[in-house]
Structures are given as structure tokens and as C-alpha cells.
Amino acid sequence: MRLSSGTPLALLVAMVLLLGTDAGLFLAYRGLRQEQDRLAPQVTMVEEALRRLPPPPPDPDPFPRTLPSVTVMATVLQAARASGVQVQRIEASPIAQERLGTGVYQVHRLGVAVQGQPAQIAAFFGQIAQSPLRTWVIDNVELQPAGQGWVAVGEIAVYALER
Question: Could you give the C-alpha distances from 22 to 18, 35, 43, 77, 105, in angstroms and in order?
């Protein structure tokens, strides 16, 4: 095998490039290693601070333990007052039990009819949905024209986990 006259020069250039790359990587590694050594005490401080933190509280159960009937009625009446609708009817059913999935739930159902403008009716149901009892279900709502406004007739249910 015969080498051309430029082959030793090409090999020399390749070696210089490889050595230059190697030196560059070494210097970059050295700089990163120094940075790591400088940050190590800060990381240790943060880890120690995190270990001293108390454990987070458990997530609150969205289902109340009991169904406060007075709170349910008061929430509906307060939502009506705040939204400007007129309550035509509220019928409370006895608290019942329902099995959903693996749980048994107490359910407080209210039949509700309110009268107002569409924006007021939407605000009424929005106020109920945003109330502290987070397990509301608003169901079977029908809108019917009535005089200068509308009447919304529907069912509101609140669930509590049976314990």
C-alpha cells in the first residue's frame, strides 16, 4: 500500500484537531466541575431545608361528612338573592342514599323553580356551583317563558359521603 505525499500532513492535521477537541472538552469539563463544586453547598442547604418542612396536609375530601340541610337551603336562597331571581318554588325531598361506584352517598335533593332574565338565572346556578359545598349537581333544568322573563325549573342535588 502506497501513501501519497499529502497523507502524513492529513494525519497530522487530524491529530491536531482531535487533540484540540480533547483539550476543549477537558477545559469545559473542568469549568463545569468547578461550577458543580461551587453549587454543592447550596444544594445541600436546600435539601436540608426541604427535609425540615412538615409533610403537606392531606387533600380535603370534597364530600362533606353530613348534609347540613339548613346550609343547603340557605345557599339556594342566598344565590337567588344575589342573582336577582325570584324563587317560585323549593321542594326538599327526604335525604336518601345512593350507591355510586364503590361508595354510598347521602343525597339531599331540591326541586327548584326560579324566575328572572336569562343572565340572572345563569348567575343563580353559577352562585350555587361556586358555593362552599362542592358536590352540587344541577340537573334537568328547563326554561319556560313567563311574562317579561323566564322560569327555570330543575333539580339540585348535594352529595355527602356516607361514613
Answer: 6, 20, 30, 78, 69
Q: Do 163 and 111 meet the contact criterion of CB atoms below 8 Å apart? A: no
| Chosen CATH of 69-161 out of 3.40.47.10, 2.120.10.80, 3.30.413.10, 3.30.70.60 | 3.30.70.60
Query: How many C-beta atoms lie closer than 10 Å to residue 143's C-beta?
Result: 12
Tell me the domain boundaries of the chain.
1-53, 69-161
Q: What is the pLDDT of residues 53-112, one digit of tens each?
A: 888 777 665 555 666 667 788 889 999 999 999 999 999 888 888 888 887 888 889 999
